[in-house]
Amino acid sequence: MMQTLYWYGIDLKWAYSDVLRNIYRHTYCKQIALDILHDSLIRYALAKNPDRQQYPQAFLQTIIRNQLIDSHNHSAKFVSLDAEETDDANTFDLHKHAAEHQLFAPSAEHLLDIQQRLQAMQVLIDNLPTRCREAFWLFRIEGKDQSEIAVQLGISRNMVQRHVMRAMMEILEAQDLLK
Known about the structure:
By secondary structure, the chain is mainly alpha-helical.
């Protein structure tokens, strides 16, 4: 018999079966569904709301619903590069078109927003302590695993994990300030 795993009061089996399936029904993309679930779990863990502990599943569902709305609003900022398919003869469904073609370009407004966020992110990363910045870069940008980073930097795997988590926490905090 498999033991149920709980994380901050959330049954992970429930989250990765029922909840993930429900998110997928909205996104029709497994990777986006996983991203939304993971982002929601992190937001849930960082929440200081007392309702989180009293009603963990309901609180997580609320976060997921908000993440789905944000995801939809984000995808609505993109316009199709296939102009011939947008004529009045056929009704144009943006989500169906996105799933079929994956040919989207961000609007000029969205490109400027991305540029400003990237510049802010670069400043944030540049201001991290040297080892923290190196560990984060190797893990998130170069895709190395923590054992490789530990060997390369000459530190313990646990220290690599701490550096990466510190960087991620600072990025999440800065992201909240940018909203």
